[in-house]
Amino acid sequence: MSMVNPLILIHAICAEIGLFAFLWVLVEMLNPSETRIARAQVAALTGFACLFFAWLVGGFYYVEVYGLHVKPLIKASDAEWVYSIVMEAKEHVFLFLPILASLTAALLYKYDGELIHNRDASVSIVLLAGVIFLIGFSIAGMGAIISSGYRFALMTGMV
Amino acid sequence: MNSRALTRAAATTIALIAAATIGSELSAAFKQLLSSIGGHHWIGKSVLSVVFFGLLYLVFSKVSDDSFTLKDTSLLIGTVFVSGLGILSFYVLHA
After folding, report:
1. How much is the pTM?
2. Which of A39, A113, B71, B80 is buried deepest, with most CB atoms within 10 A?
């Protein structure tokens, strides 16, 4: 199991596309017009779909591969904290993202053209999209630490 | 769609995810209960987060009017940061 599993690549790519889609939402909603709102709606739906797919693929990988092959190696190495802190926090904070993404998309479709004048709703969408991007990229950073922890465990002869 | 109810349902669900995460580490029985939902405690939390989000929306839409304001969003974002930092702090302290 020293090869990179394609599932983790699919999970990471989908999640990052999803996060950039919400960055796109944020930018469009800074100065909303009918055209920008329409683009933001497409971006939010794309972002939600990508994050949802990343959830399914990442979940399958986590249960079927990580738990059986990656976690035991990291736990047995000097980088045990990567499992006990970083992975544990990542897998649970990730669960916030689909909820926030669905809410943001729902607000965009509910208020639609009204977002040009409804400042509370448009600022809410900007803030939520920013939070999704911020949390998402913190999680991506944690993913990089976990991959490094796995490589460290392999390199230090724990196989 | 009731925006205020949806925002409150999101905030409550996120707080419940954090509570379930910490609770499952402190109680083996609770972790086992979550595992019984989908074969793994994380799947249990995932399924419950979707179910609770839907149910809480139905409950809040009965009791909330739809006068959505920035205050609702601020409360949600505050809950997100407190819950996220709570989970991270718990694992740092219990590693």
Report:
1. 0.94
2. B80
- Could you state, in order of their start, the residue ranges of all structural domains in chain A? 6-155
DSSP A95: T
Pick B6's closest partner by Cβ from A55, A103, A111. A103
Taking only the tens place, the pLDDT of each residue in B62-87 is 987 778 889 999 999 999 999 999 99
**What's the N-to-C CA distance of chain B in angstroms?**
42
How far apart are the C-alpha atoms of A79 and B7, rounded to whole Å?
39
pLDDT digits (tens, 9 = 90+) for B20-66: 999 999 999 999 999 999 889 999 999 999 999 999 999 999 987 77
Closest approach of A35 to chain B, Cα-based (Å): 23
- Out of B43, B53, B80, name the one closest to residue A63 (CB): B43
Q: Do A95 and B45 touch (CB under 8 A)?
A: yes
Rg of chain A, C-alpha, whole Å: 18
Query: For chain A, what's the residue count?
Result: 159
